[in-house]
From TrEMBL:
It comes from Marivirga atlantica. Pfam families: Peptidase_M28 (PF04389). GO terms for molecular function: metalloexopeptidase activity. This is M20/M25/M40 family metallo-hydrolase. Signal peptide: none annotated. Residues 104-301 form the Peptidase M28 domain. Gene3D superfamilies: Zn peptidases (3.40.630.10). Transmembrane segments: none annotated. GO terms for biological process: proteolysis.
């Protein structure tokens, strides 16, 4: 049983002017929270990318273990389910008329002043196993984003945000963003309330101490907020991989692409591809804990600033 500080959380709002001449609400917290909880994060990262999880393929039965793991954590945290039992099932047609069932896992924290929704997401599926010697553990891709998302759930359950938040653990990303596409087109959420997607996919490998933020080409105001969140961090932020001429271009590389297709503002956080990407060597031992923990803190800090400035993010039209 985990316990959390229930001390009242005090927001101090400062108004400064950013480069667009707009008022920017900056947020600083005075709560004495242990964030991120390094022991929790690292133990869960190892557990979620262990051989026993068998690589978390949507096509293989063992993925049920990953789903149980996540739901047990959410129940333990005490966060509300956005759909019954946290599960949003969807059918994936297969050859020969067979169907496969994908399952998104959706938790919810109501905002204290708005029912507009920020979706914070990470895909929990990966590419499975060939045999007992060839298990694709997917520690970086994407146990890292999944466990970071659990840590965000813990934080925002204890510290209520201004806007409502859905914490989406998406399935079948590796099959073509299928879980995220199903979610954004489903009737479980009023699409007019979807105001921002913050997606995490591969956030633990600190090989270069660099983290990409993708999407600021379309929503430049978001860049200012990320710069604020990153200014007291050692991680070097890289903005890009989203212009039509960029190579690589990651605009549709992970679940945020499904939101972008629906014109929902997004930002995607992830590291560059590395030599263990989609290989059996993407294991937890390769993760740099200092980088991973700082990345989680940076993204949480960015989300706090997005939450305080959501009206500015949604007021500006996107580039094509
Ligand atoms: Zn991924």
């Amino acid at each position: 049983m985990k316990t959390y500080s229930l001390l009242p959380f005090i927001f101090i709002l400062l108004f400064v002017h950013n480069i667009f001449g707009q008022e920017v609400e900056q947020v600083s917290d005075t709560a004495t929270t242990n964030f991120p909880d390094s022991a929790y994060v690292m133990s869960k990262l190892y557990a979620f990318s262990a051989d026993s999880m068998q690589g978390r393929s949507t096509k293989q039965k063992a993925i049920s273990k990953s789903r149980k793991f996540l739901i047990d954590e959410l129940v333990d945290i005490g966060v509300a389910a956005y759909v019954p039992d946290y599960l949003q099932a969807f059918e994936i047609p297969q050859k020969k008329g067979d169907t496969l069932t994908g399952k998104n896992i959706l938790a919810y924290v109501e905002g204290f002043s708005s029912e507009q929704i920020i979706v914070i997401s990470a895909h929990y599926d990966h590419v499975g196993m060939k045999d007992s010697l060839n298990i694709f553990n997917g520690a970086d891709d994407n146990a890292s984003g999944t466990i970071a998302l659990l840590e965000m759930v813990k934080y925002f359950t204890a510290n209520q945000p201004e806007h409502s938040m859905i914490f989406a653990f998406f399935d079948a990303e590796e099959m073509g963003l299928l879980g995220a596409k199903y979610f954004v087109n489903s009737s479980v959420v009023d699409s007019s309330l979807l105001k921002l997607n913050v997606n995490m996919d591969m956030v633990a490998r600190g090989d270069k101490n660099e983290l990409y933020a993708v999407g600021t080409y379309f929503y430049p105001q978001i860049k200012t907020y990320i710069e604020q969140a990153a200014k007291d961090k050692s991680i070097k932020m890289i903005y890009g991989a989203d212009k039509p001429t960029d190579k690589p271009n990651w605009t549709y590389a992970s679940d945020h692409g499904a939101f972008h297709k629906q014109s929902v503002p997004f930002v995607y956080f992830g590291v560059d591809d590395h030599k263990d990407y989609h290989k059996i060597t993407d294991t937890a031992e390769k993760v740099n804990p200092d980088f991973y923990l700082e990345a989680i803190e940076l993204i949480r800090d960015a989300v706090l600033i997005f939450d305080a400035n959501l009206d500015v993010i949604t007021a500006n039209s996107r580039k094509k």
